[in-house]
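Budget justification, computational time. The allocation requested in the original proposal was used primarily to generate structure tokens for proteins on the priority list. As evidence of use, we reproduce two of the resulting records. The first is shown immediately below.
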Amino acid sequence: MTMKANYKPIIILDDDPTGSQSVSQVPVLNDWSKASIQAELEKETSVFFIITNSRALSQIEAQQLNEEIGQTIRSLIKDFYIISRGDSTLRGHFFYEVASLAKGLQWDQEDYLTIFIPAFIEGNRLTKDDTHYLVDQEKWIPIAQTPYAQDKTFGYQHSNLVEFIIEKTNNQIKKVEIQSISIANLEKSDTLFLLEKIQNAKKFLIVNALTYEHIDRFASVIKNSGRKIIFRTSASFAASFGGVKSSKLLSKDEIYQNSPIENGGLIVVGSHVPNTTAQLNQLIQSGIKTIELEVERILHNQSHVEDYLKSLAQQIDDHLADKNDVVLYTSRKLVTGHDETESLKLSVNVSTNLVFIIKNLSIQPKFFISKGGITSSDIATFGLNIKRAIVLGQVEKGISVWQTDESSKFPLMPYIVFPGNVGTPDTLKHVYDKIR
């Protein structure tokens, strides 16, 4: 495989499909086979995403996956940047993914630096004084005081990122091994000072950011560092560092530029965060056709589940053929397990049933909105068989539009990846009104 001597791609491993929510005209891969990654490298693609959906996996599975991808990348190319894109509300396997990725790359534990930048500008998740906040209008809410911190699988107790790292690494990382770059450093210090901070950092470096100007400043400096680095960041840094930041929201015409389908559109809602439920309620009030997937029925009545799911698929097909838009949503009563592992398995089970419904559709929707990270990934990969898609841009802040590839179940369809934690109560309805 021959590549230009100065080719140094930015490879972004995304733990669900929502990390492309700040970029445009960037490919996303839904598999991490050697052939797929090699194809992007042969094209000399400057930035590309690999959707691992590792947030839907157990810790051990996530570690194995990241180590495997690290080994594959190492076998194909020697000079690259690597970003582990995680949730800006701090849910995910975090430390274990980064450590396993480094292991696969054969980077010694003492030989690389983890740079942690969770600020997500579009979503008002901002970091100052090493503390991560959700900013709601004028209220700065420490992230550990939000519903995201109560996540049954990925909950946490600390908003201060130093304490968060110590908590999530089970004290494997000590306070003295964690340094940070402040807002004042980014605004007032020269490049040499910042490079020295990076060079002298031990194992973790926290980067505070309140605006894209802060992220852009750091992104421009870090490329001059000679250290081996794994970035654990939100979507905003990936967009800035790759130079693929979206400049404007997509128009309706841009979303449908290659899609001639005139059937009804489909919205699937799997996420259970309070924000999603509030958005779903507003959408339902608009009069859209509704189909509820009764979660307790599929969990407790296994003998007739397949017939039930096929009947829902047929109902969706009937609505789409009649040019009616329809929303398929999981029942809102959250079913949880006895512990983190069992709760995650239940979530995956529900997502698997949503995928079964999508696989049994025969009518191509005019558009497809998928609400929720795990939901979006499973539907894209297993329901729609999307191997590679192009991110056209965003329909609203933090909400990406993919164009499906020719080989997918529904070719050249706008597939809208709508994170569960993005938007206000009227955002889902607003997006629907924009594209309907």
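The second record produced under the same allocation is shown here.
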Amino acid sequence: MFLHIHKSKIHRVKVTEANLNYVGSITIDEDLMDAANLYDGEKVQVVNNNNGERIETYVIKGPRGSGVICLNGAAARKAAIGDIIIIVSYALMTPEEAKNYKAVVVFPDENNRLN
């Protein structure tokens, strides 16, 4: 049996862009991706603190050090620039793996930079 376990989270980042005319996804500053152990193409859940929207999409690597958080494609309709979101990833684990796993949680500053 495998369980979906919280793998990592970028907690409370600000949406800096919304690009409706893109294929889809969320672009994330590569520094934030590295800190949160996220991979290019990885499935994530995006939770919007401003309007309660929850979506699933995949990660695209953004320029390192840019602070970019850009919702692309249809996801761009789910958040406005300036909204605060939480980005969560999950992993499949056995119950034994899950007992010892510690999720990575990143708390960026108000400019989406690492403290």
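A brief technical remark on that second record: The chain has one domain: 3-101.
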